[in-house]
Amino acid sequence: MANLTLLYAKAALTGFTRRGTELPDSSLDAEVTVDPAHLARYAGVCGFGLRDQLPITYPHVLGFGLQLRLMTGPGFPFPLPGLVHVANRIRQHRPLLVTEPLSLHVGLGNLRPHERGRQFDVVTTASVDGEEVWVDVSTYLRRGGGTVETGTGTAGTDSARADPPAPTARWRLPGDLGRRYADASGDRNPIHLHALTAKAFGFPRAIAHGMWSKARCVAAFEGRLPDAYEVDVRFKAPIPLLGEVDFSSAPTGDGWRFALWSRKPHLEGVISG
To answer: Is the CATH code 3.30.2350.10 the one for domain 4-272?
Structure first.
């Protein structure tokens, strides 16, 4: 993995110089193998069991260093501090085995208007022997100068006004969850680590990683998912640490719908075949 702490420091020091209206035409590639000890840490903090197949969310952390390098690299127009991860969609074409080397490719694209600013995608693919087996699309929002068009946002307000779904489980989130997930994922964004560092960015307490919340939800369906499927989530509101969240799930025609709530919706997602 790249030294992500240094990349975050670079982002903090150079963010004020970043200006632009276009994404650079750049991408990065890497060949990776799975470290069983690292996978075990990740599985433990996210609630997955240890199996010979990778959790669908795990290749995201293998590619996170490449994603961060692109977003701190030359020509990237937005300062990393202040970007909001608003959505993530992952499709697995078949199970990925722990023993399989993965070829990762990460690129930027689809810069487009959002009602609160502009949004873009970071697309990560994993291939085995030249065959694409896994695709991850993370959508980020850069606030400011947004449009007033309806339907362009990924974090709408309808669910914020709706009654919460009936919970099927309640999860207590410890105060060190952000640090534990950072150790497993490499994502050491200060807003997730300590109350003091989170306050510097406007949060009263540290908040849980969005990709931890997605992984924890997927882990709740372990043993009930097909070999090939997609998990699409929208991140609605930060989850403060420590705290409690209600998890709800319900079957759909070809999968599941699920959500995390406390006093407000934090995450809403769909699993489909």
So the answer is: no
Q: How far is residue 254's CA from residue 231's CA, in Å, rounded to a whole number? A: 12
> 144: which residues sit within 8 A by CB, 6+ positions away?
116, 117
The amino acid at 203:
F
The answer to whether 267 and 259 have CB atoms below 8 angstroms apart is yes
Long-range CB pairs of 189-195 (<8 Å, 24+ gap) are 189/8, 190/8
Strands (DSSP E) found in 83-116: 84-92, 102-114
The pLDDT tens digits of the residues spanning 208-252 come to 999 999 999 999 999 999 999 999 999 999 999 999 999 999 999
Residue of 134, 132, 108 whose CA lies nearest to 121: 108
Burial class of residue 77 in the structure, from the number of CB atoms within 10 Å of its CB (0-12 exposed, 13-18 middle, 19+ buried):
middle
The C-alpha R_g of the chain, in whole angstroms, comes to 18
